Amino acid sequence: MKEIVITAGSSSSIVKIGESIENINNYASIENTVIITDENVNRLYSGLFSHYRTIVIGTGEEIKNISTIEYIIKKLIELRCDRKTFILGIGGGVVSDIAGFAASIYMRGLNFGFISSSLLSQVDASVGGKNGVNIDGLKNMIGTINQPEFVICDHSMLKTLPDDEYINGIAELIKTSCLDNDGLFQFISDNREKLLKRNEDIISEAVYKSVKFKAKIVEEDEKETGVRKILNLGHTLGHGIEKVKSLKHGFAVAIGISFALYISRDSGLLSLSVEREIVDILKYFGLPAALNEVADKKNISEIIDAVRSDKKRDTDGVDFVLLNGIGRSVIKKIDYDELTEYILDYIERGN
Length: 351
Ligand code: GLY
Prior knowledge:
By secondary structure, the protein is an alpha/beta fold. The chain is 44% helix and 19% strand. Glycine is lined by residues 124, 128, 130, 228, 231.
């Protein structure tokens, strides 16, 4: 097992990479803990935590809404939870976003931690303190930044993930690898076959490298006023596509990444060979790397409207994360007319 400590603001969080859910009793007392998990995780793993009080929620991005938060808060009241209660989210990114948010607002804030059961949450979502829910399909419109006490990344739980859920996480891993300047991209490229076959040692090393990079960024800029914005590579268009086409997050982000690469090259920042190298990796894992795989010109205005409603917008445009090489990112403001043109060109260009 490897550990990474993230110290951000006045709190710190420890990420335990390769720890097992079977050691749950070492992290959460039976008297004070309430587990929040989803139906799938509960069905597969409840034998390991049935001695705890548990709130079970549904699955999927659709349940990441304020009604689920209200449901949880009412359950916490019913269970007579007080400020000593510890909330333990067991699940993927949706569970950690919801459990972290419910814990952050119940009685003005309870301590919480996660056992992360999806690749997407191990490499990204459960780490860094962001939590929240969507409003009318608009991603994470309410939430807080509040660090979990711990995040346990149990890679053996990834064996039960459906293929598309696993690949969903690979997209966020590739995103981080484009930003990291410590060899993560090369590692993924060299180990692509083993990663696709879910080799646990390779997954563990990839998660470690990804969390190490993210920890450095979060420590520098927990509240996303500066450098943390680069973690949104592929997310601005990605969130728009996710809303309009109901794609899984990672699949939409993959298209967002390839769009950002296209703008980067068009702006003279990125060479065609690096663009192709990244697109090839996305495709190797079966991720979409072109907007016209999921949308056509008919959807453009809807997608642009969704991008304009994203929380990263500004009145005059959107901050886009671009690359000028692997491990080198720049943020460029793109106004909405320019964005529309870019999207039209990009659709036209095809694959
Ligand atoms: N998922 C991006 C971030 O945590 O900032």
